[in-house]
Amino acid sequence: MLLALAALLLPRTGCGVVEDLAALAPAEAVAYAELLEPGALYTRFRGSPLESAVRGSPGWKEFLASPKGRNLEKVLAAWKGLSGVPLDESIRRIVSKGFAAALLPGSSPEKPDLLLLARAAEEDAEFAAETLQGLANLVTLGRKGEGIRREEIGEGVLFAIDEKVFAASSGPLTLASTSETLLKAALSRAAGGTSTSLSAAPPFRAARRSAPGGASLFAFLDAARIAASRPDRKLLPAPPDAGAAFLFGAIRELVNASPFLGLAVSGSGRSFRASLHVPVPPGDLPAEIRPIFFPAKDAPSPPRAVPPQGEFLALRLHRDFEAFWNAREALGPLDDSGLRMAARVLFGGRRFEQDILPHLGAEVDFFLCRQAFDSLPRPPQVRLPGGVLVWRLKNPDALRSALTMAFQTGVGLANAQRGQEGKEGLLLSTEKHGDATVHVARYVPPDGDGPLPVEFNATPAYALVGDRLYLSSSLESLKAAIDAGLAPTRPVDRLDVDGPVLREILEENEAPIVANEVLKGKPRERVLADFRLFLDLLSRVEGATLSFGPDGSGVSLEAVLRFLY
Amino acid sequence: MRPPEEDLARFEPSASEPWTREAAAHLLRRAGFGGTRGEVETAFARGPQGTVDLLVRPAENPAYREARESVLPLLDFADVAILQAGWLLRMLSGGDPLRERLALFWHGHFATSNRKVGSLRLMHGQNLLFLEKGAGSFRDLVLAVARDPAMLVWLDGNENEKGRPNENFARELMELFTLGLGPYTEVDVREAARAFTGWHTSQGSFSFNARAHDGGEKSVLGRRGPFDGHEIVDLCIQQDASPRFLARKLFACFAFPDPSPVLLDALAARFRETEGNVGLLVETILRSRAFFSPTAARSVVKSPVEFAVGALRALGLRADAKALGAFLREMGQSLFEPPNVKGWEGGRAWVGAASVLARNRFAAELTGAEKGRLGCSLDPDAFFPSSVRRSPEEAVGFALDAILQGDVPRSVRDRLVASARNGNADEAGRRLVHAILSLPEYQMN
Description:
By secondary structure, chain A is α+β, with helices and mostly antiparallel strands.
């Protein structure tokens, strides 16, 4: 009734059609994100297996039973009572043609301003205005009319709540902001005003140009402006340790050198892709850092290890360890005293910098593989994957005896520790696998029929095959990696995850995973239900890939999720 | 003063010694880890002897069974938090509280730390031993502990060999486990150590190493013979001091500390009459007039376990048991990691400055508006019935009954009511419960 009355009283609005919501945001926006056709996305979600999974999940049912969930149901019921349309349907229609959010510097860095923009279909322009009026009425009812101000602005209507939150509608556009000035400026642009908009700003236009076509979501970050407000004037902080610097150092350096960042997300029925573009080519990195992460343009590209059978995670990196060591001060904290000592102890007195480092190549592959435990009389109760590291060596012969020394010293140290604890140690042996000599250490299985303890997941092993060092926690995985061989590949950093194999591993380890969650206080039934729901969702995933490398005008960090249908 | 036989006589409610909800809650606190409101009401309805019957022969409890099984797939890992969480889940489930309470007693009595043992499997085995044998024959329990692999590692049993006896276990057997300080000599300890030579472990189990065993004549506690470990245990528990030693500790745990010598003699005599059956002695204590006397009520400081588990049960909250273990460490009681062979000192030692602060942080965590490390927080709407929410006096009365069984002076009650008048109902409810959990009265068992 109230909405119908409001519809009669409100002047009909009309404005020039604004297709690009970015044209309403000011050029000073430091961050901007836009969903294209969210209405269509939501329609696809409704009735999909994903929606069924969410609604059927114990977590959702628990939320609905909680005080917040009960309050939400009251709000939804009140909305439907007032408007006659469910709230989610109302929102879908208001944002059906686009939704965007812009973040702007506010009165202080801790208090940025937010501007929300939504565009309905032309035929829903009146509905959008009525919905905003209805929402204002709902708030008014709750506050007995206090703190609400209504103002007509040109062809639109503005509502202010406690002079802190402002909302307006104008034709098919619905806007909200924490700043009245921002809101009015956006309305002015919608009416044809001439103030500079974000869509005209050169960094934004460049970010948009570099985004792959067909994106459902696009986001922009004015990296330079945000970094300027930080004490160290960097967007990303220094990595916490050497490991983080080794893995993510290039990303950090490039992002910190970049004036802006662009993110595009797109999805089809069979895959989902997110791509972050950094418009700084590897050549712009400092000379001492670039070769760590990127091969020289004309450098030969050695073949890489092929993922072995049973692999569910494959990581491929280009890391020039010698260059990393020489530039370590520039990249982040690295306490090298431990590494030097470890090298002396493991490698029989050899010096890390002089005797080991110069022989390490830059091609590093790492795999996690499901183990079948066929060589054991019975499998362990907890089944862990085997890890295999494949590292190209510049001069394998120079390291041959050092590697043997390191392996037997490592096993010896482990055995000494276990002996102190009154436990059996590992036995060393060598065996042939094809032409390769494999050095392996094994635990001796105890008598009896019970499942083997967790340490039986480990059969540490290594082999030198050609110019590759194969080092593994599992002999089974090592042999599989040697059998898989090498193949040419593009020199980009890449991480691949195999959905079905990962699912098998999780299923095998259901008992300890569930037990661990029960110990955290969750009811067993709930844990089992959540675990099986996760496995069910995972069963629809073929795999995922995360890759990082040059993309023409800079570098891209891309994530792809592939589905099984 | 009553004669000891009257102190140990069964408590039969009367006008002068009525059966009250406070008494029912006292029984559930001492014989377990505290009761929920429903459990207190049930105990009150059943009466004291009926409630003890149920404690001695508890009903099936599926949550307890689930808690016992929860830790089994994880025993190969090295994180003691797993074991702590598993045991805490058992306590929180409310299943077999008396046996669990006894297991906690024995864990402090036969104190063994995973910091040295380094095996969850062995420590879990010891914990199950306390659960399964802790309410039976004391002799059988001590023998089982002497052969327990965790104990053997803890007290260097594997180093105890013929010609080079290690005295650790023999000393603690006499001083800490069976006799207390005094009724033995250093010679007794040395000779007893010879009897346990060859009591070793192999692949995580007890193994008698005959070649390392000293089968020669030993002179222990006034007797002479080619004793082995079994016989040394018998010699120890047959000493007059042993029943008194154990009866004193059990009475202090379940009733009140420092019973009179006369009462202690009566307890020791009862223990001998039951042929050293711990469960029967504890049952005697729980059924006795002494247990329900004013001397026993709120006479001991709650250990961190009793404080925290009791609070969670009283509030009906389900916590992350691993995080709970971490809170208990901060309060000074890390299960499976007693500080030394003597276990935890207990009593006033539980309430130092740091541990009181830790208890307060725990109470704040439980009553905060957002869930914290424990993964749970009080929902005042669910805890306080709607009938009491509008009245601060009624809300305070309800909360005091639920958590403390009303056991506070009038002045404290009045202060709580004054505080409950401030803020909205949600804030006032949380503040009220936090205040009650922080009261000195709540720290007492």
